[in-house]
Amino acid sequence: SIVSLGEPMSKYTLLEELGQGGFGAVYKAVDTSTGQQVAIKKMTLQEDVSEELAVTEILVMWDNRNPNIVTYLDSYLVNEEVWLVMEFMDGGTLFDVLRAVYLEEGQIGAICRECLQGLHFLHSRQVIHRDVKSSNVLMGMDGSVKLADFGLCAQLTPEHSKCSSSVGTPSWMAPEVVRGEAYGPKVDIWSLGIMGLEMVEGEAPYQREPRLRVFELIERNRPPKLQNPRHHSALLRDFLHCCLQADEDWRWSTQELLQHPFVTSGEPVSSLAALIISAKQVQEEWR
């Protein structure tokens, strides 16, 4: 059994809801025996699909421990729900941060580096994330950056070295996914490039368009570019160009991108702490 036996309600006290998704909701909770804050993702098992997502997420987190991947703590089956217990990231999602503050290039470079380290680890273990975007990147008040949300991951094997199922979030999907072609780990690099645009512009390209229209635009158009390229450094422009190659053979790998000058010149993660504190202050003012 991949889930623990026992009654999580006796071990954890739920404090507040942190967010909702298609799978269910995430709560902040506290481990009553240690006082440790945790996050609990409650996933409703209504059909085979949701069960598969829950099992995938647990197995990927359980099997892939890394400083840039949210730490798995435990999981339980409670009635028709799976409760996934993981570390609590007190800075919230990158999506929330982007709505509140403007990022400088050195900070974007730092976030890209941390995400690339996590993706490099996954790709080296033949795992594709398939849903890289700002709402699936979590941050700590210390500036730490971690990948989350592994329900759509694919595990490649020697027999199945490519995927073909069209999954992900439309605006972040690579052209080969949209076209229904076989694809490999570099779909995550395209999504990271889109997330780079998101960090600069405040939103992903085509984000306001209907789903089918997004697919049409990704398939028909050249890779999206910065709205005002001259306002940004040549290094940032080149980094995005290396991520957003329509042909996956030309798209850089995690290993290559970790050596890219835009990434190597990124600030240390500690510099993100002040950014996250500012974002929290803005969010408090909105309430």
Topology, element by element:
Layout: H1 8-11, E1 12-21, E2 24-31, E3 37-44, H2 48-63, E4 72-78, E5 81-87, E6 92-93, H3 94-100, H4 105-124, E7 127-128, E8 137-139, E9 145-147, E10 154-155, H5 175-178, H6 187-201, H7 211-220, H8 234-243, H9 254-258, H10 261-264, H11 272-286
Antiparallel strand pairs: 1-2, 2-3, 3-5, 4-5, 6-8, 7-10, 8-9
Helix pairs in contact: 3-11, 4-6, 6-8
Question: Can you put this structure into words, describing what you see?
Answer:
By secondary structure, the protein is of the alpha+beta class. It has 2 domains: 8-87, Phosphorylase Kinase, domain 1; 92-282, Transferase(Phosphotransferase), domain 1. It contains 11 helices and 10 strands. It has helices at 8-11, 48-63, 94-100, 105-124, 175-178, 187-201, 211-220, 234-243, 254-258, 261-264, 272-286; strands spanning 12-21, 24-31, 37-44, 72-78, 81-87, 92-93, 127-128, 137-139, 145-147, 154-155. Strands 1-2-3-5-4 form a 5-stranded antiparallel beta sheet. A hairpin with a 5-residue loop joins strand 2 and strand 3. Helix 3 packs across helix 11 (272-286) and helix 4 runs antiparallel to helix 6. Keywords: ATP-binding, Kinase, Nucleotide-binding, Serine/threonine-protein kinase, Transferase. It holds the Pfam family Pkinase. This is non-specific serine/threonine protein kinase. ATP binds at residue 42. Residues 12-263 form the Protein kinase domain.
